[in-house]
Amino acid sequence: MRVLLVGGGGREHAIAVSIAKSSRVDKLYCAPGNAGIAQVAECVPIGVMDFKALIAFAKDNAIDLTVVSQDDPLCAGIVDAFEAEGLKIFGTRANAAIIEGSKAFSKNLMKKYGIPTAAYETFTDPQAAISYLEGQKFPIVLKADGLALGKGVLICGSYEEACEGVREIMLDKKFGSAGNELVIEEFMTGREVSALAFVDGKHYQLMTSSQDHKRAGDGDTGLNTGGMGTFSPSPFYTEEIDRLCRERIYQKTVDAMAAEGRPFKGVLYFGLMLTQDGPKVVEYNTRFGDPETQVVLPRMKNDIMDVFDAVMEERLDEIELEFADNAAVCVVIASGGYPLSYAKGKVIEGLDAFNGKEGYYCFHAGTKFDENGNVVTSGGRVLGITALGETLKEARARAYEAAEWIRFDGQYMRHDIGKAIDDAEA
Ligand code: AMP
Ligand code: GLY
User: Fold this and answer.
1) Is the Cβ atom of 210 under 6 angstroms away from ligand 2?
2) Which of 422, 390, 392, 416 is nearest to 403 (CA)?
3) Beta partners for 285?
4) 9 CB near ligand 2 (under 6 Å)
5) 71 is in which domain, residue-wise?
């Protein structure tokens, strides 16, 4: 088979490694890819939103399957565009990708179908939003409706802060048109868990659990980022929690989307909060998580191409997903300044240390080759250093050991990825 993967982040590097491992794949291309993906795929310089060029490439190169797991192209209809040309593609159609693309849509869906989530209201008028804030409990959560690179959520400690937040999102358009509509929701407390599932429109198959670390600094301080590190499995995702989620959340969501005439096919990401009243949905994403994928896929035993087929052929109920009985930790190495402005073009040293090291992965996120052939930084999150271990503690020790092999100007990482593992034991 000839496969085209669309994207160029750490998640795509992990997906590319899984695809390249399949005995069914003869040739893998990635558009646009990055310096790490180039080790397992031929990178082609086409942007993820250039559907016309991607379709032309797929036709000219006899691509059997295209794979997409990034929110922007999915919400903009890349799957619909490929299908309209008779091309096979793994990903979610636009009418279902809206489950991530519009928080107002997903909140209304959960309300209509009784899926547990934080209480909320939606607003298109800033004045009405501000009036609503009077008399609410704080902290309170403001969410821009649309896609905002995972940054469109403000947790506001006071009435004044929340009013300022409404102005920033709805009037100053800090997150652009994503802020045309606003969700104001109840602040929940509890542990967060990411649960990813393959969904074929009717059935789902859950992958192993994981946990992200969204804030930039140690001890969950600093700004929200796309994710600074992950571990898998989550010791807090117990059998009891799994049972509750299966009963109250997963199948209900799949059925709700089908009932709305928006059958969901692809990867559905459940961002869960384990509250005192049971698990609740914080958010849905229409794709693999980043950097969750970097700890989930290295543990998956199935041939990923078989799973993609089962999704597209609506027979997920016929397969069984299998995960190794081990653990993985991913530590993101970022460029100083991220998630605000940061330098680019810094030469990265130490990458060769990963060659031939079983159980260690250096997933590239923001990297490229410069004109001298050096691997240099080209994004905020630069690398995701992942290690496997028999236990979470072993995986964590190995990931931090390997993170020390890397050197570039201005690099930073969190030092407490997986600290919750110790809490679980306490
Ligand atoms: P989201 O983009 O919806 O995943 O939100 C980003 C982060 O904000 C989440 O991972 C949570 O840590 C936090 N968050 C979102 N909604 C709530 C809520 N209702 N209560 C508490 N924290 C929240
Ligand atoms: N790690 C969070 C996300 O992929 O949205």
Assistant:
1) no
2) 416
3) 269
4) no
5) 2-93
The response to whether residue 118 sits with its C-beta less than 6 Å from ligand 1 reads yes
Task: Quote the pTM value.
Answer: 0.96
**Does residue 371 sit within a domain?**
yes
Does residue 152 register a pLDDT over 90?
Answer: no
In a domain, 108, yes or no: no
Each residue's pLDDT tens digit, 96-145: 999 999 999 999 999 999 999 999 999 999 999 999 999 899 999 999 99
Phi, then psi, of 268 in degrees rounded to 5 = -110, 125
Residue 100 belongs to some domain of the structure: no
Residue 13 CA to ligand 2 centre (angstroms): 15
285 lines ligand 2 (CB under 6 A): yes
Asked if 14 and 41 sit in the same domain, the reply is yes
pLDDT, one tens digit per residue, over 361-391 is: 999 999 999 999 999 999 999 999 999 999 9
Q: Whole-angstrom Cα distance, residue 236 to residue 218? A: 20
| Residue 270 CA, ligand 2 centroid: distance in Å | 10
Residue 23 CB neighbours (<10 A): 7
